[in-house]
Structure formats: C-alpha cells, structure tokens
Design the sequence.
C-alpha cells in the first residue's frame, strides 16, 4: 500500500518537474507531512510542490490540469473553489505565458534570409 502511494506521488512530482531528485524530495515532504491523507490530495501536493510555482492561484490550476490531467470539477474540489474560477485561473495563466507578439518571427533564422 505505501509503495503504491510513493509511486503515485513520485510520478506526479516527476511529471511536474522532470527531475528525479526534486521529485523524490517532494514525495518525501508530502508523505512526512501527511502519510495517511487522501491519495488525490497527496498527489496534487507532490506535483504542486515539485513544480515550484510562483503565482500559486493560477499555477496550481495549471499544474493540476496539465501535469495531472485533472478536469475542472476535480481541480475545483481540490482548490476549494468553483469550476468557473478554475477556468479563469487557467485562462489567465496561459495568457500570461504566451510569447509577445512577433516573438517567433523575430527569432526565426529565415526572417533575415534573402533569396539568391
């Protein structure tokens, strides 16, 4: 039973950060803090901890949606908020992470190329 919990937490943490050591640290911290908590809650905590969020309200929703693949209802229940709030948080977070207009074309090597 404990091994399955460890595996689930580690997998969630690793998906959030891509680093074995950080994922192991997050798994340890979560299990030490609440070894008998509900698996969904612990999995979310491990992923969020490993992701190292800056804007917790927005990033929590994004991590749960993108990393764990959770749907709006489940995220809302985990974050103790509404589905509409979750959708708003995700939309705000994704908008703030978009590259500035013209970013892709400015960085393109073909932009400055001239035909012969």
Sequence:
């Amino acid at each position: 039973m404990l091994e399955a919990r460890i595996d689930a937490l580690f997998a969630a943490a690793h998906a959030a950060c891509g680093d074995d050591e950080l994922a192991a640290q997050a798994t340890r911290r979560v299990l030490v803090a609440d070894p008998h908590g509900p698996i969904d809650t612990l999995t979310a905590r491990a992923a969020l901890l490993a992701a190292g969020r800056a804007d917790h309200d927005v990033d929590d929703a994004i991590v749960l949606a993108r990393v764990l693949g959770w749907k709006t209802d489940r995220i809302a229940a985990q974050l103790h908020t509404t589905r509409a709030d979750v959708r708003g948080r995700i939309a705000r977070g994704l908008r703030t992470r978009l590259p500035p207009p013209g970013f892709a074309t400015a960085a393109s090597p073909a932009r400055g190329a001239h035909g012969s």
